[in-house]
Each structure stands twice: as structure tokens, then as C-alpha cells.
Amino acid sequence: MPPRRARPSDLSDARWALIEPTLTAWRQARPDRRPTGEPAPTDLREIFNAILYVSRTGIA
Hints:
By secondary structure, the chain is mostly helical. It has helices at 13-29, 44-57.
């Protein structure tokens, strides 16, 4: 899958460096709810970017 184009609402690398340790700690402390026991295959930065995008543009 090709990398997606950056949006104006995306986090900069400097801001992500401030937020990443907190989100990573949250993910590690959270009990795993998948039946396979494997971690969820989601990128926390992409999830956070999606939240910021919806926050900026709203939902039509």
C-alpha cells in the first residue's frame, strides 16, 4: 500500500515525539482483547491524525 499524502491537520514529527510516549504506555498497559493474543495492527499516529482531521473538518 503506498503511503498516504500528508494533510494540514497531521501532527508534525516534533509534536508526535511529545505524544508518542504517553500513547505507547497506554497501549502497553491496556489489557489485550484480541482472541489471538496478538497486538492490534494499528498505527497510533495514524489514529491520532484521523482524530485531528475529523476535529478540524467536522463530519458532513
